[in-house]
Amino acid sequence: MDAIELDFAAPRARAEPQAAMDKLVIAGGPRLAGSVPVSGAKNAALPILCASLLTAEPLRLANVPQLNDVRTMRTLLAQMGVAHEEDGRRLALSAAHLDWPLAPYELVKTMRASILVLGPLLARCREARVSLPGGCAIGLRPVDQHVKGLAAMGAEIDLEHGYIAARTRRLTGTRFVFDLVTVTGTENLMMAATLAEGQTVLENAAREPEVVDLARCLVAMGARIAGAGTDRIVIDGVDALHGAAHAIMPDRIEAGTFAAAAAATGGDVTLEGRLGGALDAVVEKLREAGATVDVGDGATRVRRDGPIAAFSLRTAPFPGFPTDMQAQMMALAAVADGTSVITETIFENRMMHVQELRRLGADIEVEGNAAIVRGVPRLAGATVMATDLRASACLVIAGLVAEGETTIDRIYHLDRGYERIEEKLGALGARIRRVK
Ligand code: EPZ
């Protein structure tokens, strides 16, 4: 990895976050064709930005996606005293002086991933005040495993007026078994353990590729971690971490979203990015649905020219089918030949896109955590509302195949996790525009 040098001289044009009430207008029909660059992974960038809190030296990142959630995290870190300099997709973070280990409700309520500052702040500052994240559209999403794990490492934690108030003399390594698989829970405890006294063993840990990318960055910073990517991660604490350079992995969910759009429109799209095995479960399901997928070393080609076959899928922790792709695949199932069954096992309320898909003419019944999707010959454009990030992506895919015009309101959800989606889709031939 060549050192990532940043010249702080020239002022940078900042991509302005999109206004809240933007809409997307899509004219359905075109088959997507061409190649699209996959951006850096949102769910790797967010914990890795928090890792900057663990050292006084600069953390130099490359391939950082330009997303609203990343901007929110930068604002949160800056409020604590972290200096950060952006140069396009390069970002240098320096937590030399942390004067305010607080994550206020105003920011945490807009982004649950703010909880990822808790472990690093406890490890570096020995104290933290982090607002409890409110629920969100897809479920209650408590953080009990984060709190339980940090308490097991010797943190004293009180819940005061909606805040997690935590402090410790020094975290001590321990063996902790998660009651359930949690991605950010695993990431929080792994970061905390890097500076704890002694060894920490995390059992029933999340195996997501984003956990592995975070571990790679932490090891480059001097952490001693073994087993990332398995359900047993062993961390030997050290006294201090140092600066490092790290390039964020490609976003497998953005890639999967474009892959589903290519399959839905009967297109031929090449996804540029080294995905490794991160998208295997999605690739298998797309093949089952009738797409042809060629996985290369640095690119993945997705096309579909036969019928869309109905399929069944059940979300599960990695390496199972990712919950973050469930809504997108439902858009594909909506126009498949036959009846598909889609079961959501991770979140208790991740079916908000169903009623919006029905407005476009989809035939879907929800029974508990399963959606029975009876494929229809075609969808019809309408005005629909985005409710959460991946539901928004589902509606974009549906709009691409619906007859006529589809308008999607509240696309600020989309801007949290997709970089310039209308430009990338437009470059593939979609008729899509953002309306202020
Ligand atoms: C991460 O969220 C992702 N976000 C989510 O992506 C993703 O959907 C989710 O993992 C599952 O893969 C980031 O990485 C920033 P969990 P996270 O903790 O860590 C329950 C997107 O669209 N749980 O793995 O918050 C929880 O309620 C977002 O990019 C507890 O009960 O999810 C859920 O039902 C959406 N107690 C299940 O576990 C806890 O302490 C999995 O949650 C923690 C979690």
Give the CA-CA distance, first to last residue. 41 Å
> What is the 3D shape?
elongated
Q: What summary fits the major beta sheet?
A: 4 strands, mixed
DSSP strand (E) fraction?
15-25%
Bound molecules: ligand EPZ
**What's the mean pLDDT score?**
93
Determine the fraction of residues in helical runs and give it as a percent range: 25-40%
What count of helical segments does DSSP give?
14
Structural class: alpha/beta
| Low-confidence regions | 1-15
Give Rg in angstroms.
21 Å
How do the strands line up in the largest sheet? 22-23-1-24
Ordered list of secondary-structure elements with their pairings:
Layout: E1 23-27, E2 33-37, H1 42-51, E3 59-62, H2 68-80, E4 83-87, E5 90-94, E6 102-103, H3 105-108, H4 118-125, E7 127-131, H5 144-152, E8 156-160, E9 163-167, E10 175-177, H6 183-193, E11 199-203, H7 209-220, E12 224-226, E13 232-236, E14 244-247, H8 252-265, E15 268-272, H9 280-288, E16 292-295, E17 299-303, E18 312-314, H10 326-334, E19 339-343, H11 352-359, E20 363-367, E21 370-374, E22 383-385, H12 389-401, E23 405-409, H13 412-417, H14 421-427, E24 431-435
Parallel strand pairs: 2-15, 3-14, 6-7, 10-11, 18-19, 22-23
Antiparallel strand pairs: 1-23, 1-24, 3-5, 4-5, 7-9, 8-9, 11-13, 12-13, 15-17, 16-17, 19-21, 20-21
The structure holds ligand EPZ.
